[in-house]
Design brief:
The chain is α/β, with parallel strands linked by helices. It contains 15 helices and 14 strands. It has an eight-stranded mixed sheet with strand order 5-4-3-2-1-6-8-7, with helices on both faces. Strand 9 and strand 10 form a beta hairpin.
């Protein structure tokens, strides 16, 4: 294996959105986050730039950034800055790891980006039109600005590629799967992967012996059934719309109800799509907000619609927990993560209420005291352990990027 200088062991992790880029710089030797930041409102003269060094104060300012290439250039400038950065030269960046939302059936593992891989990612853009095109822009910007630096794509869908055919196929003519690849893909895979393995470490038992349900609850929410280290089912489907009630997404709905609504309201396909993805979920049910904190506050003040939204959100999660316990023939660990999962004791309590028949015994005292930290919130005698585990998708991307690069270097050596 080729020797790599320790000074050139920093990994840049990028998550490119349609008008934003989030990033973190990691020390490749110890996986420590050195700098993190975000550029928002790309394409305007007032793009918002936020960054923070490890244990340092956050820096915020605005600047004209009209495209993703200029955003990546700004990130590199910030990393080189004596006050805000952590590198003296871009040659210290050993590799770049990109979050890519959709890998279709092409990718079940992190992959070094080549022209062929980039073409496949572009092919998957029709399955994720809001995400993949932006991530392609981020990749292309790095190819131009960091020539010769290897780049790795880490796919949100990859962790779910172990789902069996009878689970991922829909009950529609098989020809449509063959022609258009309409099937369950699942998302949030990097988060589910991380918290499932972290739960195994905290539990003290190998993941190959555990049955785990991971609940990624945020504005976008999904569950995954992880049996013996492999995902066997997940709540999101062909798109992130299926499954749980979310911030603005409807989740599961009878397709005929959508057709009926379109006829009654004379809606176009795009209008119906917008209603289901942007006006539904907590926002639609509460007639108020997609913010769970606000919904809980309003429900405490007697707002009936907010209470309905809260109850419906929690009920859908509970239903999936029961279904996935049946699918795995048991449950050892239940994990809550992401914005709501990590920071909302009322949601966790409501989900776990009356699940004692599954072996879930929540400690109300510990649950109410746990906000955004790694903590077991079940009673010691609970057969099923319940954990709050903050997710760390960027760390996973950094680790998997290094693993892919090392593997490639070994093969070359």
């Amino acid at each position: 294996m080729k020797k790599i200088k320790s000074s050139r062991m920093k990994v840049l992790v990028l998550n490119s959105g349609s008008s934003s880029v989030k990033y973190q710089l990691f020390n490749g030797s110890n996986k420590k986050s050195l700098v993190q930041g975000k550029i928002s409102n790309i394409g305007t003269d007032e793009a918002e730039i936020w960054l923070k060094r490890d244990k340092g104060n956050a820096v915020k300012f605005t600047k004209s950034i009209l495209n993703h290439e200029l955003a990546i250039r700004q990130i590199l400038d910030s990393l080189l800055n004596k006050k805000t950065g952590f590198i003296k030269d871009v040659s210290e960046i050993f590799a770049v790891g990109h979050r890519v939302v959709h890998g279709g059936e092409f990718f079940s593992q992190p992959t070094i980006i080549t022209d062929e891989v980039l073409a496949r990612i572009e092919e998957c853009s029709q399955l994720a039109p809001l995400h993949n095109p932006a991530q392609i822009k981020g990749i292309q910007a790095c190819q131009k600005l960091l020539q010769g630096v290897p780049e790795v794509a880490v796919f949100d869908t990859a962790f779910h590629q172990t789902i069996h055919r009878e689970t991922y196929l829909y009950g529609i003519p098989y020809a449509y799967y063959e022609k258009y690849k309409i099937r369950r893909y699942g998302f949030h895979g990097t988060s589910h992967y991380y918290v499932a393995r972290q739960a195994s470490k905290l539990d003290g038992r190998p993941i190959q012996k555990l049955k785990i349900i991971t609940c990624h609850l945020g504005n976008g929410s999904s569950l995954a059934a992880v049996k013996h280290g492999k995902c066997i089912d997940t709540s999101m489907g062909f798109t992130p719309l299926e499954g749980l009630i979310m911030g603005t997404r409807s989740g599961d709905i009878d397709c005929s109800a959508v057709f009926y609504l379109m006829r009654q309201e004379n809606l176009t396909i795009d209008q119906a799509d917008s209603i289901l993805n942007k006006e539904s979920g907590l926002k639609g049910l509460s007639n108020n907000s997609n913010d769970m904190l606000k919904i809980i506050e309003h429900s405490k003040k007697g707002d009936e619609q907010s209470q309905v939204a809260f109850d419906a959100f929690c009920y859908r999660i509970k239903k999936y927990v029961g279904a996935y316990t049946a699918a795995m023939n048991g449950l050892d660990v239940l994990v809550f993560t992401a914005g709501i999962g990590e920071n909302s004791p009322p949601v966790r309590a409501k989900v776990c209420d009356e699940l004692d028949f599954l072996g879930i015994k929540l400690s109300n005292l510990v649950n109410n005291q746990t906000i955004g930290v790694e903590k077991m919130i079940s009673k010691d005698e609970s057969p099923v352990k319940v954990w709050v585990i903050p997710t760390n998708e960027e760390l996973v991307i950094a680790e998997q990027t290094l693993n892919v690069i090392y593997s490639d270097v070994k093969q070359e050596g």
